[in-house]
Amino acid sequence: MVTAFWNCLSNLCSCCINLCSGCIVRRDGDLIPGLPEELVLRCIVPRLPWYTRPVCRSISKSWKIWIDSLQHRKGIELETRKCQLPLLRGMFLVCTLDMQLFITRDDLCEENLRPEYYPVQSRGHSYQMHRQWRKLPPLQGALPSRSNVSRIIASCGMVYVWFGTKSQDVAKIDLGCGDWTWKKLRVSHHFNDHCVDFDGKIYMPGFSVSETGRKEKRVVLAYDMISDQCDQVETWKHDDLRVVLWKTSQIGKHGHDKGLYALIEHQLDPDPRLELLVYDICSESWRIQEQMPLPEYEWSELKDVKLLSADCFEPPSLMDVNTTWVDYEEYKEYIRGSIYAVFREDRETVDEDESDVDEDDEGECLGAQKDPMLNKSTLMKARINLATRSVEWEIVNVIGCFEDARDSPIECFSVMG
To answer: Which keywords annotate this record (predicted)?
Structure first.
């Protein structure tokens, strides 16, 4: 009976998608012909892929009214998020210099594997994006246009972007609920570069809060992604927080796929050392996981200490979390214990009189025309080869082709957690 129910539900979802594309004739007032509206809203709409929500709103006035009303129905919102999170988790997001965000697609046909690009023009910029990237609504109006996006946090189906190291203007889009509009949040405490997302909250360390008698103390603030409320974590005093994905064995033991860590340096002690703490969700407390001696060479800032997961190494490390010191990280991003970077390579321009272009290379040449030199930007992931003591890079996604520039055309990027 369960199998029959899910087969029936699958057919209904197909029916809804066909309705969105105009393949089914709809009677006025019906969401889907022959089905009660409440059944459609509770059982079908939450299971439609998140990126179809704008299409659903454009079917008719009835669809637009009902889709917009879902934001005020918590039960349907929770069901939608539950269905959409598996589709969104692990997707990459990039922000280009023109403040345009893109997210990777999961609906590309397997037979269409040849790289294809589509043109994008925005705020005086012109470039070509790879077809595997879906364009999100523009940020204009949600954030000041005088700056560039400096940070993205993507977690629980939500995306947060903000400018600068101390910003109280934050833009949020909730893809997990099928929301397709940016909302401008005016938070009471600014977001900074040290923010980390964990267990449905964004933790903001390093804030100074005034107490009675004009004294100040360093605290950690916790921003709840669902309620949009910010509270002070009374028992935390750590300024350097990290989030690392765990191995499968750790997931089974803790019930979570990532861990929250903190680093504390004891430079002035008789025995200088670096202390690694891990947060226990069950007891809501920190415990020491490892103590390491400080390196013999000149000590760098604590922010240069990175935590890497086991799959960053070849062969994979036996430890869930590994500590490394980084002295150069201009183009790298450390996301949940993995190392990513955007690389550029020159692309030859094609003159108009060239006619010997192979059909297979036509997509790479982007047409036979005289254009400024374009650079292909590629998102890559690093693995550290322990035998050769070298860093090996593998391609994750081709981003697109951009005009030659001194700086990277990608302002920042992240991965949906």
So the answer is: Signal
The DSSP 8-state label assigned to residue 250 in this structure reads H
Strands 374-385 and 313-314: what pairing? Answer: parallel
Distances (CA, A) of 333 to 169, 257, 319, 353: 23, 20, 21, 42
Which tens digit of pLDDT belongs to each residue from 301-323?
Answer: 677 788 888 888 888 877 778 87
Core vs surface per residue 238-259: b (16+ CB within 10 A) or e = bbbbbbbbbbeebeeeeeeebb
Q: What are phi and psi of 358, to 5 degrees?
A: -65, 150
Query: Is the distance from CB of 258 to CB of 276 less than 8 angstroms?
Result: no
pLDDT at residue 185 in the model? 84
Q: Which residue has the tokens 């004891």?
A: 266
Residue 104 — very low, low, confident or very high, per pLDDT cuts 50/70/90? very high
CA distance 79 to 44: 11
Question: The whole model's pTM is what?
Answer: 0.81
- Distance of CA 361 to CAs 111, 130, 352, Å? 17, 15, 15
